[in-house]
């Protein structure tokens, strides 16, 4: 249909236009997508075998939908992609505030206009992006916001009594007629507002200050909710929940690889930062921090750990290295394991502790999560020190540990230039040999990263002590560190937790 040439109701009829409900429209377009093997929910990673098929089934069934899941599980992003299933343009009566279909007018304005002008009634074309409305549910949302109220200014301007339907100022939902209406965090709505919603879903009734109006609104409703909200802030009233046809459960990425794909897709890096390419070891460690957080005893499982944690952490990881390059006037420098501690601000604000304590609580937990991620990943690329307990003579880490036992220590400061960083690592006997033995084919910068990683791994297996300095990390012999009794702030993550117990 040529949208540019059709300007009146008569021309629309001549072109064979037939009204179609928004749910039928979405169903038909989804069928076209599926037949072509295309995905209307592009950019949603990790849901191919779970959430996406359930979404498609619900749309084929022409259901109103609720997406239920913890924070950062792409619920809102999915809801916004529903617009891809709408027709590109639909005809509306020109000037109508309710997107009236020219062949099925709903408002008094459109009905009167068509009655007066007939086939000469002017129409306009509404793009699919203008048919999407989203509202964040908050306790202060009112019935007037969502459904409507009497407008005394309109009554005065039009010189109409309050009993006239034309004095009503319609809310967001009626204005979403023939479109998609999304309510995020549904349990935050007061119960009386939810009651108004379920009556609208079931009966298409709109009750505004005594007006008895039956408006067969044509709307695809999509709701999102967090299970935590059911206990902490509110609940979905049972009659409303019963009238939402399909409930779809979302989830976090089930593998590090999927989580990494999401992070790389969503991370917002500056053009200069894109030249700093973190090694896969660092990318994997960023994701493992989130995986560790989701099963940590310190973090409230019901609150969840958003995918935004890894996205923000990845951005901070790159920015930490970029800052060092700027200060050292170095154009290119590989990212380091110590840069992981630059992501702590990305962690502390996105975790809810089981027991809220002092302000330092999230900071200490963030360090513990980083340490656990390093320890669990170590066995993927190096043999664990524990595997040599029966044959200590074959332990490849003995030379490194012995060097530290002689009283040597290493300070890996965050401000070290690349030359100083390289020199510091190369001066540790046996460290380079371990990396050469297991990763001989890697390039020189990767080998340096792995050398640094070995130090962190040995500290997690309690063969070295790792202390957090104000501007970096210090490695020392474990035994001598115990005798010197460092302060609480100097303890490693695991040591700190041990002393707290």
Short description:
This protein has 22 helices and 14 strands.
Count of beta strands? 14
Radius of gyration: 30 Å
Domains (count): 2
Summarize the biggest pleated sheet. 5 strands, parallel
Distance between the termini: 73 Å
Continuous helix count: 22
Q: In which range does the helix fraction lie?
A: 40-55%
**Strand order in the largest sheet:** 4-7-10-1-11
Stretches where pLDDT is under 50 for at least 5 consecutive residues are 485-490, 497-501
| Class from secondary-structure proportions | alpha/beta
Estimate the mean pLDDT confidence: 88
* Large-scale geometry: elongated
SS strand fraction = 5-15%
Q: What does the model show?
A:
This protein has helices at residues 9-14, 22-36, 51-60, 75-81, 108-117, 143-146, 152-158, 172-175, 191-203, 229-232, 238-243, 256-266, 280-294, 307-327, 344-348, 361-381, 398-405, 418-426, 431-438, 444-460, 478-484, 493-500, and strands at 65-68, 89-93, 123-127, 132-136, 148-150, 168-170, 179-184, 205-208, 211-214, 219-225, 246-249, 410-413, 464-469, 472-477. The protein is α/β, with parallel strands linked by helices and 501 residues long. The strands form five sheets. It has a five-stranded parallel β-sheet, with helices on one face. The chain has a three-stranded antiparallel β-sheet with strand order 12-14-13. A two-stranded antiparallel sheet has the order 2-3. The chain starts with 8 loop residues before the first helix and ends with a helix. 36% of the residues are buried.
């Amino acid at each position: 249909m040529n949208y540019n040439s059709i300007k009146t109701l008569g021309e629309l009829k001549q072109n064979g236009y037939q009204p179609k409900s928004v749910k039928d429209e979405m169903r038909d377009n989804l069928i076209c997508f599926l037949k072509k093997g295309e995905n209307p929910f592009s950019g949603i990673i990790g849901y191919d075998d779970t959430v996406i098929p359930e979404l498609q089934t619900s749309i084929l069934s022409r259901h109103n939908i609720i997406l239920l899941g913890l924070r950062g599980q792409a619920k809102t992003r999915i809801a916004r992609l529903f617009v891809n299933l709408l027709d590109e343009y639909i005809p509306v009566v020109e000037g109508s505030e309710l997107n009236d279909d020219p062949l099925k007018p709903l408002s008094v304005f459109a009905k009167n206009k068509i009655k007066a002008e007939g086939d000469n009634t002017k129409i306009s074309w509404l793009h699919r992006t203008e048919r999407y409305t989203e509202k964040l549910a908050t306790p202060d949302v009112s019935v007037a916001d969502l459904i409507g109220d009497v407008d005394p200014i309109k009554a005065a301007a039009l010189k109409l009594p309050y009993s006239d339907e034309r004095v009503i100022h319609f809310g967001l939902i009626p204005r979403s007629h023939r479109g998609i209406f999304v309510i995020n965090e549904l349990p935050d709505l007061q119960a009386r507002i939810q009651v108004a919603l379920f009556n609208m879903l079931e009966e298409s009734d709109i009750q505004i200050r005594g007006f008895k109006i039956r408006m067969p609104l044509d709307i695809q409703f999509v709701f999102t909710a967090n299970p935590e909200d059911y206990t902490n802030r509110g609940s979905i009233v049972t009659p409303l929940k019963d009238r939402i046809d399909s409930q779809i459960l979302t989830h976090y990425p089930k593998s590090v690889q999927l989580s990494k794909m999401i992070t790389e897709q969503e991370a917002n890096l500056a053009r200069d930062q894109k030249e700093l390419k973190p090694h896969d070891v660092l990318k994997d460690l960023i994701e493992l921090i989130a995986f560790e957080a989701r099963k940590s005893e310190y973090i409230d499982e019901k609150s969840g750990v958003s995918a935004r944690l890894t996205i923000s952490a990845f951005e901070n990881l790159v920015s930490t290295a970029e800052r060092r390059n700027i200060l050292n006037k170095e154009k290119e420098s590989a990212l380091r394991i110590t840069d992981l501690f630059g992501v702590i601000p990305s962690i502390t604000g996105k975790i809810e502790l089981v027991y809220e304590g002092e302000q330092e609580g999230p900071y200490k937990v963030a360090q513990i999560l980083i340490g656990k991620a390093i320890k669990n990943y170590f066995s993927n690329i190096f043999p664990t020190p524990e595997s040599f307990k029966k044959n200590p003579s074959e332990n490849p880490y003995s030379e490194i540990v012995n060097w530290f036992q002689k009283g040597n220590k290493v300070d890996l400061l965050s401000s070290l230039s690349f030359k100083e960083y390289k020199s510091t690592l190369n001066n540790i006997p046996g460290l380079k040999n371990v990396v050469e033995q297991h990763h001989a084919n890697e390039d020189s910068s990767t080998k340096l990263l792995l050398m640094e990683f070995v130090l962190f791994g040995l500290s997690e297996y309690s063969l070295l002590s790792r202390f957090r300095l104000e501007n970096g990390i210090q490695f020392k012999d474990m035994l001598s560190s115990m005798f010197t009794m460092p302060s609480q702030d100097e303890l490693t993550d695991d040591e700190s937790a041990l002393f707290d117990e």
